[in-house]
Design a protein that fits this description.
By secondary structure, this protein is of the alpha/beta class. The protein has a single domain, classed as Pyruvate-ferredoxin oxidoreductase, PFOR, domain III (Pyruvate-ferredoxin Oxidoreductase, domain 3, 3-Layer(aba) Sandwich). It has helices spanning 16-29, 77-82, 103-106, 116-122, 132-139, 145-156, 161-171, 174-188; strands at residues 4-11, 33-39, 48-56, 69-74, 87-96, 126-130. A six-stranded mixed sheet has the order 2-3-1-4-5-6, sandwiched between helices. The chain is globular. The two termini are 29 Å apart.
Length: 190
């Protein structure tokens, strides 16, 4: 199998690390060689966080260069726009419709860009937009929006449900497991 490249992008504290571990666990359970690399940036201060996930028969490096990502999973609209240069022509962006103001917007120096999803589509990307925050709140915890998006990813990959459920059970702390299972289902069906 040809190597596939997935970027997970967001803002510090949104759960990109758990999302990358879930995806990596599922891919390894299907027998793929998987490499995951975390690039944190200013995650402690709400800055951009990027994780690379590559899988295939043999993967030599987890790094994804510009124009190489088959899929970008974004936890926030501006992050989807920020990383679009890494998407392959004809690639897909799965993004939450959530908007988190970066520091220049908070300080009044800049304005959050309008119509980002439309601009990303006009740049040639296939966009699947999900109101992950609302679905996570419906599941019982706004912080589960990362798992909502992984549910949407699961709906697009042809892997059996048990792989995802096993990964959730392995990686999510027991006290948050039920909420995350509900979030995953809501995302899968979104």
């Amino acid at each position: 199998m040809q190597t596939k490249s997935i970027m997970i992008v967001g803002v510090g504290g949104q759960g990109s690390l758990l999302a990358s571990r879930l995806l990596g666990s599922v891919l390894m359970s299907k027998g793929y060689d998987v490499k995951v690399s975390e690039v944190h940036g200013m995650s402690q201060r709400g800055g951009s966080v990027v994780t690379y996930v590559k899988y295939g028969d043999k993967v030599y490096s987890p790094v994804i260069e510009k124009g190489e990502a088959d899929v970008i999973i974004s936890f926030e609209e501006l992050e989807a726009a920020r990383w679009i240069s890494h998407l392959k022509p004809g690639g897909t962006i799965i993004t939450s419709t959530q908007q988190i103001d970066p520091m220049p917007v908070i300080s009044g120096v800049a304005k959050y860009p309008d119509k980002l999803i439309e601009k990303i589509e006009n740049a040639g990307a296939k966009v699947i937009a999900v109101d992950a925050l609302s679905l996570a709140q419906k599941a019982g915890n706004a912080k589960a929006s990362n798992v909502v998006l992984m549910g949407k990813v699961a709906s697009l990959l042809d892997f059996d449900e048990s792989c995802w459920q096993n990964a959730l059970e392995e990686l999510v702390p027991p006290k948050f497991l039920e909420v995350n299972k509900v979030a995953f289902e809501l995302g899968k069906n979104a």
